[in-house]
Amino acid sequence: MPITEIEKVEECKFRITFDYDEDKITQEADAIAYDIGKNHALPGFRKGKAPVDAVKTIARKHVLNATKNKLMNDAFEDILHEKKWRPFGQPQVEEANLTYKKFSLKIVLAHAPEIKDAVFFVLLFFIITICFNK
User: Fold this and answer.
1) Does 109 score more than 70 pLDDT?
2) Structural fold of domain 3-132
3) Taking residues 9-32, what's their average pLDDT?
4) CA distance 99 to 13
5) Residue 103 contacts residue 19 (beta carbons within 8 Å)
6) 120 pLDDT more than 70
7) How is the chain split into domains, by residue range?
């Protein structure tokens, strides 16, 4: 997990910084470039015959954007799984910089607060009391 920093912004809202290394970026970019080369005819190559390096050069912007989106989604899923948070909406992306060497991502994520069992039952008791006393 490439989490480098978790900073509490306010109650149930955190700023999370991710930094991916070159190996993970290369692996994801190669997989995306392979899929592009397999499914599209690029200039100078027949459909499915373009090598990965050529695809990364010819379709550089598309490969970088698709890689960035994939890494952002993976980071979001990883933090939710690791911390067992339930998100409120989508994360706010503050910064997402990607080159083939480094990817840094900063997101602000709001998540549902944990309700302890005793508090939950007290709240449930009051809700039931109010509903049946009408």
Assistant:
1) yes
2) Alpha-Beta Plaits (3.30.70)
3) 89
4) 28
5) yes
6) no
7) 3-132
